[in-house]
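Sample A.
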Amino acid sequence: MMTKEELEEEQRVQKEQLAAIFKLIEDNKETFGEMSHGDVQEQLRLYDM
């Protein structure tokens, strides 16, 4: 079981990773098309993230 601090750190890292993924998508619209934060999160839910 993770401590409260470990859970908070895990959540912080996940947010940073999602922000980096979204920036990559935003910077490469010609490859990925238009996607919102909600679109990215919906896709990640398919992988239970």
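Sample B.
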Amino acid sequence: MARNTSASNHEVVEDCIFCLIANDRDKETEVLKKNEELVCFTDIDPAAPHHYLVIPIEHIHSCSSLHVEHAGLVRRMVEMGKAVLREQGVTDMKDIRLGFHMPPYISVNHLHLHVLAPSSQIFKAKIYKFIPGNIDFITEEHLQKQLKKSWNIQPFKTQWKGNKLISKRQ
């Protein structure tokens, strides 16, 4: 895995598409909002009429890599996601879903917050990916509670037992 440092002194993992997007090295992705810490853009495989991803510019593998000091980062990710929803014309902020996929259920190994609206219109074929309390999707509220408890989020160990997929925290 090749790693470089960007002009903003953030580590760039060369084979991480989100690192490339965050550091203006992907020309195909339209960035909706960016500051010195975060970037927001549209998900390439949307599950709702509004489906955005908020990522830190710094390469953080997943929410399993977070600890109590990251609580502010998660809060700022949520704030940016909500701001983009408002900028995109979403007015019912009670009909939104914000959360993270847990390893091994992540498609890109770079922390990203899913911002979906309206949550009542998440596409039926994709709703299973965004069910709060499921083993693979953790809401931002649940993550914040765990970070405040100083609990290190442990990844799930997934294995087959017979014809059943069993997942439990390591």
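B remarks: The chain has a mean pLDDT of 87. The chain has one domain: 3-169.
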